[in-house]
Amino acid sequence: MVGEWSGDWTGDIFRDHPRSYRGSMMRTMASAVYMADILLFLMDRSGPDGHVAAACWHNFANGAQEMFSIQATEEYARVLGAGRTWKGAITDEGYGVRMPLYWVFSLLSRTCGDDLLETRLEAPDNRIKAPSPGLYTDPEYAFDRVTCCATRRGAELSLAVVNKDAHQAVDLRVAVRGWALDSAATAESVGAESYLAENSMADPKRVSPREPERVAVTAGGEVRLVLPPNTVMVLRCRRAGD
Questions:
Q1: Burial class (CB in 10 A: 0-12, 13-18, 19+), 66
Q2: Helix (H, G, I), strand (E, B) or coil at 11
Q3: Which CATH superfamily is domain 2-238 in?
Q4: Which residues make Cβ contacts (< 8 Å) with residue 108, sequence separation at least 6?
Q5: What is the DSSP string of 158-221?
Q6: Where are the domains of the chain?
Q7: pLDDT by residue, tens only, the chain of 242 residues
Q8: d(CA 31, CA 16)
Q9: In the 8-state DSSP scheme, what is residue 129?
Q10: Calpha distance 113→108 (Å, rounded)
């Protein structure tokens, strides 16, 4: 994923996408998962005891426009190439395609709460290597398979979880200390079978938000579900009685 990202500046990987502009490397599900992981890291470090200042968030937001690549029509690409302003409406048919990264940002921004909560991840085998075959491999490098961050807004708790494994699903068991959960939780996710999946004019909805899933809370107060590979998921739980 890191190699995919850096390839955007070399232009050596996605030469078969001549109608793309700017962040062509930010097209795939791998990039969406990678950026979701960065967002969760920033969220987790932005509390009173963290080290992420407002200036960091500001710079990150200013650069975000470079990350939202689209596959443009030939007319739109010519306008950009000439340095002119697009005069059509953004709702024009064929204007462009929302990439996986767009849907991940949308999911996390919609569901993020106001208060950061402490999380504890128990995973005996949570280290994986970069996927092979892939755009980037490094035998000396490994990263966490699953990362998470929890926030709260009123009586609703949102747990964002990322599975960066390219091939393996993960069984999740979620417990919330100090809260009696409602009888069911809601899981919303964005994911794809392949980490190289991307949207295009021909297939604009290959990667898109999955239908929200209602998940029963067990008698012991846990939520159990499967997190597919290459997936960003937000589990929304409500406090019982609210």
A1: exposed
A2: coil
A3: Golgi alpha-mannosidase II (2.60.40.1180)
A4: 36, 39, 160, 232, 234
A5: EEEEEE--SS--EEEEEE-TT--B-SEEEEEEEE-SSTT-B--SSSTTSS-PPPPEEEEBPTTS
A6: 2-238
A7: 333 333 333 334 444 444 443 344 567 888 888 888 888 888 877 765 555 554 454 445 444 544 444 555 555 555 555 545 545 554 444 456 788 888 888 898 888 888 888 899 988 888 877 656 555 555 666 778 899 999 999 999 999 999 998 888 999 999 998 888 899 999 999 999 988 898 877 788 899 999 999 999 998 899 999 999 999 999 999 998 87
A8: 18
A9: E
A10: 10
Per-state percent for the chain, helix, strand, coil, to nearest 5: 25, 25, 50
Q: Tell me how far CA of residue 17 lies from CA of 35, 62, 90, 155, in angstroms.
A: 21, 25, 21, 46
Structure tokens at 136: 């980037």
8 A C-beta contact, residue 148 and residue 117: no
Provide the 3-class DSSP secondary structure of residue 64: helix
Residue linked to tokens 């964005």: 190
- Read off the amino acid at residue 175: A
Backbone angles phi, psi at 143, to 5 degrees: -145, 170
CA 34 – CA 84 distance, rounded (Å): 32
